Amino acid sequence: MTRRFNFRLLDMIASPPRIAALFSFTLLIAPACAFGNETTISNDAVKVAVAKPSMKPAAPPVRPKGPLLVEPQLRVEGAGKGKPARVALTFDACMGKTDDRILSLLISERIPATIFVTARWLKSNPQALATLKQNLDLFQIENHGQNHIPAVDVPASIYGIAAAGSSDAVMQEVAGGGDAIAAAGFAKPRWFRGATAKYDASAIRQIRGMGYEIAGYSLNGDGGSLLGAAAAEKKISAAKDGDVVIAHINQPTHAAGEGVARAILTLKKRGVEFVRLQDTRETGNQGSTR
Ligand SMILES: [Zn+2]
């Protein structure tokens, strides 16, 4: 770093509008360099700033294309024509609390389900954890990750959530979730569903390599728990033979859960055969299952 540069830098530090310009320019440059290291990014930004005191970038920054994300589908083997529909209910317990409207209904109606839990949710819901353990004949507990970080191995933002961003971080997310489930006393999980249910192809291969199958779904029942009660009820009530339904069991204050609970009763009255993922054969696309 030259003395002249130091002088310019001090000059800029003394001038708030220039600092703001430098800061915003650095922000513009940084995403384009998301795959590089940070030192290089800052040096480049400062060099340009010194050469052009006006701080006006000559051309828009080149941004890398985002990773190609896939959202695998999963279906269970249907019961076949003339038989009651076979449906797998799957619930995500991402973080936060427990929706007892759903959990207590599953227990009182003896409806089996697969529940994807994070380490984070397990830690903050000891009562629900005890309830699940008392009903292991109903519930298959599977891995929703350690901290609810999307299992994508390059930097990306998905629904505003920062992805793991590297294969090491994907491994930590998956292994951390699995370890927490085993430590809580459940069977070793063999299914993984990442936060947002989106992945890139190399993360899918990595997670499969860790011994997991990846749990997609075929029917989005509650729109990330953001649907109204009537809309969630309508969607889930329309489940067909072989459907894997995804909904949330961690949002007790959202209206969607009320609709989810009503739809479960509707399906039961219709004679639907409820299965867990371990009860039947499944087929996933995008290389997500065997
Ligand atoms: Zn989740």
What is shown here, in short?
The chain is an alpha/beta fold and 290 residues long. The chain is built from 10 helices and 14 strands.
Characteristics of this structure?
single chain; six-stranded parallel sheet; binds zinc ion; disordered N terminus; 40% helix; TIM Barrel; 290 residues; two-stranded antiparallel ribbon
Q: What layout of secondary structure does this protein have?
A:
Blueprint: H1 3-13, H2 16-32, H3 38-51, E1 69-70, E2 74-76, E3 86-93, H4 100-108, E4 113-117, H5 119-124, H6 126-134, E5 139-143, E6 157-158, E7 161-162, H7 167-183, E8 191-192, E9 199-200, H8 201-209, E10 213-214, E11 219-220, H9 229-237, E12 244-248, H10 256-269, E13 273-275, E14 282-284
Parallel strand pairs: 3-4, 3-12, 3-13, 4-5, 8-10, 11-12
Antiparallel strand pairs: 1-9, 2-14, 6-7
Helix pairs in contact: 2-3, 4-10, 9-10
Bound molecules: zinc ion.
Zinc ion (ZN) binds at residues 92, 94, 144, 148, 195.
